[in-house]
Model the fold of this input.
Amino acid sequence: MKKFLIPLALFVVLVLFLAAGLKRDPHEIPSPLINRAAPEFSLQTLSGKSTFSPSDYKGRVWLLNVWATWCVSCREEHPVLVAFAKQIAVPIVGLSYKEIQPQDDPEKKLSPDAQLSLARSRGAVWLERHGNPYSLSVMDLDGRVGIDYGVYGVPETYIIDKEGVIRYKQIGPVTPQLLTNTLLPIIRGLENS
Amino acid sequence: MNFCGLISKNSRSPVAVLPTRDRLAGLTGFVYFLISGLIAVSFASNPVLAKEAEPMASDAQVEARLVHIAEELRCLVCQNESLSSSRADLAEDLRAQVREQIVKGRTDQEIKDYLVERYGDFVLYRPAVKPMTWALWFGPFVCLLIGLGVLLFVINKRNKKIQSLQPATHATVVGAESNTNLTAPSQLSETAHPEHKE
Done:
């Protein structure tokens, strides 16, 4: 009997490791940007009237939500954000990520200006229809800012603290459960600090 | 090489393929040409997969370096593909970034660091050696050593058992005591076999 105890123990350890591995989502890659300063950018807003930089919100806790009208999961997430925006005073900045997709302009005929205005009208219509949770939305047409933030799947949501440091990154749609159990406690903690 | 890698290598660009084709003379070159043609045709008939690779920069050297770097990087969207073979939009964007930085004269390491800064060690197919990855790099060798240790221990134990069972007058067995553990069992079996046959 004693002879089998060691292999059995090793087997149990192996099973525990594999079981833990099963629960992890391989698509959720831990971001190296957590606890680092949010990358600086200056982008035009959706309305085109002004530009926005993360430093504008220094001293405030804010959210950066990456979205696009072509993004299916964003549709699922959007009502949650709309309800959330009404509930809390924390500003949500929308990053309209690569609104013009390659298939929208297969022959690459659109000039940058034409792309921008198409993206603007599309985004505005979409927000009109689904509600606008954003205090403002900025245009990241070429996805450069997205790369700086390590965006690889839309939607993504970042919580940025008063010092402009990224404290949390949510990959995939924000659900009501996530909001109450994870995001809200973090936001409250950061606001009180 | 996986299927996707093969396709992208053929469809990617004549620029990247050219140096190889130079080396392939005559018939081999013709066969190669036929195969790539066939693949191109089979993909043209499939509208979903027929998405053409983005046109490459004219500089063949930049492209060669791009392929060299991107093969070591993982695509974040389709995680089992390298950045050089993936046709995800993000991979396209990241390749454009890498290309731009090559043109700017950045080193391979600087370009990789740029991506690690944004996407983490996950993008590297060859993670850096640091305390966090020690288990990954040295774990297998540690396991091997443990296995060797257990093996030697078991052999040694069995050896002693056999010795205690056999008459101590046997010269070879006595000699084996001073020998290494690994050679002892074979010597034992050599001497044991004739006895059994008798």
Observations:
- Residues 32-192 of chain A form a domain with the Glutaredoxin fold (CATH 3.40.30.10).
- The first helix of chain A runs from residue 2 to 23.
- The mean pLDDT of chain A is 92.
